[in-house]
UniProtKB/TrEMBL annotation:
This is Lipoprotein. PROSITE patterns: PROKAR_LIPOPROTEIN. The keyword Nucleus does not apply. InterPro entries: ABC_SsuA_sub-bd, NrtA/CpmA_ABC-bd_dom. NCBIfam families: SsuA_fam. SUPFAM superfamilies: Periplasmic binding protein-like II. It is found in: Cell inner membrane; Periplasm. It comes from Streptomyces djakartensis. Belongs to the bacterial solute-binding protein SsuA/TauA family. Keywords: Cell inner membrane, Cell membrane, Lipoprotein, Membrane, Signal, Transport.
Length: 370
């Protein structure tokens, strides 16, 4: 379906709004769940052994979402600890990807798990200097859930109040693209138009839905399943919009300067990521429990078993960065006039992944042509 054009939005205006919203959310919710504190490598499930690598501490960013379960499980079960040996890992959590990019640019995070839209924006805004994608992590795990008393069909979304996690984040762009494909017009910055788009911390979204202030939300897991437990209905699974139901939800990115200075550390983190994904595939029940335990550690509250199980079912964990789908998402954003270009040449450096897969005896992954 041909996309209806939206009003042209200067990139600087979008970025300024994104920064302002990031600051506001950080004041509201501490920039995500959990505590941003260094922990010894051995404190995350396995004793630190061997000499330190080329840094004392590696700072790792991720979101408290099940779509980031590679990081959740990797920390909880000690995969990072084993590969990093005597180097400590300092985990830091965020509400959404744009805040991770700000931290990466500021030098307060070295390696991170983020969604495609923040990776694309960060790369293009910096002229290719902000980050490199070094591995895949997850596909799927994003759903559009609604109040069934107010929205009974896709057509009834028009005129309603819908939440996404943050201005410019992956789900925000996905919703804007989907709405535009239906011919609806929404200002990408203000969120006003044929649908009222509300950008909010996922925890705030749950409370707002419960109070009746929202009609629906396009959100990652486990937020979608939490809302379903509150009475929401899944109106659309984003996987249904993609060929083969595969699309990149989470990638592993690294600061290029950190990659150049500390390739041993990046290799160790990517090996741990591959090991975590392998273990998740072999032990899905234990992996789900480990991810839930880590989320409880971050949020102070356990997910009900039914919510955790429902959320887990829609996610596929993969080392493949699914490069063609990233390029498609970049074209979506450019068509929405959120980007001036969709040229992602040079965004990937799959050397660490190639070495990790070879070490694990797994087949290589290539950056496929668009």
């Amino acid at each position: 379906m041909r996309l209806a054009p939206l009003p042209s939005v200067p990139l600087t205006r979008l970025l300024a709004a994104a920064v302002a919203l990031t600051v506001a959310l950080s004041l509201l919710a501490g920039c995500g769940y959990g505590k941003n504190r260094p922990v010894a490598a051995g404190a995350a499930g396995a004793p630190a052994r061997g000499p330190k690598l080329s840094v004392d501490t590696v700072r790792v960013g991720y979101l408290p979402n099940l779509t980031h379960a590679t990081a959740l499980v990797g920390l909880e079960r000690g995969f990072f600890a084993r590969e990093l040996k005597g180097t400590a890992v300092a985990p830091r959590t965020f509400n959404a990807g744009p805040a991770v990019i700000e931290a990466l640019n500021a030098g307060s995070v070295d390696i991170a798990w983020i969604g495609p839209s923040p990776a694309i924006n960060g790369y293009l805004r910096s002229g290719g200097n902000a980050l490199r994608i070094v591995a895949g992590s997850a596909s799927g795990g994003v759903r559009f859930v609604v109040n069934p008393d107010r929205i009974r069909s896709l057509n009834e979304v028009k005129g309603k109040r819908i939440a996404t996690p943050q201005l410019g984040n992956t789900q925000d762009v996905a919703f804007l693209h989907w709405a535009a494909s239906r011919g609806w017009k929404i200002d990408p910055v203000t969120g006003r138009g044929d649908v009222s788009l509300v950008r909010a911390d996922n925890r705030v979204t749950v409370d707002a839905f419960r109070s009746g202030s929202l009609d629906g939300a396009w959100v990652p897991e486990p937020t979608a399943s939490i809302l379903a437990a509150e009475g929401a209905r899944v109106l659309l699974d984003e996987a249904d919009l993609w060929p083969g139901r595969r699309f990149v939800t989470t990638n592993v990115v690294v600061s290029p300067s950190f990659l150049a200075k500390h390739p041993d550390v990046v290799d160790a983190v990517v090996r741990a990521s591959v090991a975590a994904n392998t273990w998740i595939a072999a032990h899905p029940g234990e992996a789900r429990t480990a991810a839930g335990a880590h989320l409880k550690r971050l949020t102070g509250k356990a997910l009900p078993a039914a919510v955790l199980g429902a959320a887990w079912q829609g996610i596929t964990f993969t080392n493949d960065p699914l490069a063609p789908t990233l390029r498609t998402q970049a074209r979506h954003a450019a068509r929405l006039r959120l980007l001036e270009s969709s040229d992602l040449t040079g965004i990937y450096d799959l050397g660490p992944l190639t070495r990790a897969l070879r070490s694990a005896g797994l087949p290589p992954v290539t950056e496929d042509a668009p």
